[in-house]
Design goal:
The chain is globular. It contains five helices and seven strands, in the order E-H-H-H-E-E-E-H-E-H-E-E. The chain is α+β, with helices and mostly antiparallel strands and about 160 residues long.
Length: about 160
């Protein structure tokens, strides 16, 4: 019997209500320094993501339940990785296992991630998956109007076989 199973699958439109609820959690918004979206804006944003073949997106499933998502997309000529894990799934190694599996699906290198300096758990997830700090930046926080100090983290090299 498998317990604590983490697997990836395609994000489906039916996942969006759960993903919407996860991104409204105030603690998660603070940690990510990224704002939650109103329902209509969230659904419109995800409709674009689901229709964009240039975006790699996978639902993170933990023990048969939707725990969050992983995405890879291009912005300003860089391939970026992002993820969101519902707070009830924090602290169990789910993000690390999901990101490691996701990186096997995404052949592009280098990959970049931006993470708020205060988000130590997410920094650790990225480090465990081979990302290293390659820069720092102050960015306008969409989650409160203040500037947020971010690490730019990079995964170089080739994907694992």
């Amino acid at each position: 019997m498998m317990v604590d199973e983490v697997r990836l699958r395609d994000v489906a439109a039916a996942d969006l209500p759960i993903l919407f609820e996860q991104q409204t959690d105030p603690d998660a918004v603070r940690m990510a320094a990224f704002p939650s979206r109103a329902r209509d804006a969230f659904m419109a944003h995800w409709t674009k993501i689901l229709d964009d073949d240039a975006v790699t997106r996978q639902a993170v499933v933990f023990d048969g339940r939707l725990a969050g998502y992983m995405v890879c997309f291009e912005r300003a000529g860089e391939r970026l990785v992002g993820y969101w894990i519902g707070r009830e799934y924090w602290g169990r190694g789910i993000a690390t296992r999901a990101l490691a599996a996701f990186l096997d699906l995404v052949p592009d290198r280098p990959l970049h991630a931006r993470v708020a300096k205060h988000n130590l758990a997410s920094i650790r997830v990225l480090e465990k998956c081979g990302f290293t700090v390659s820069g720092e930046e102050e960015a306008a926080s969409s989650a409160g109007g203040d500037e947020v100090e971010e690490f730019i983290m990079t995964l170089a090299g080739t994907p694992s076989a």
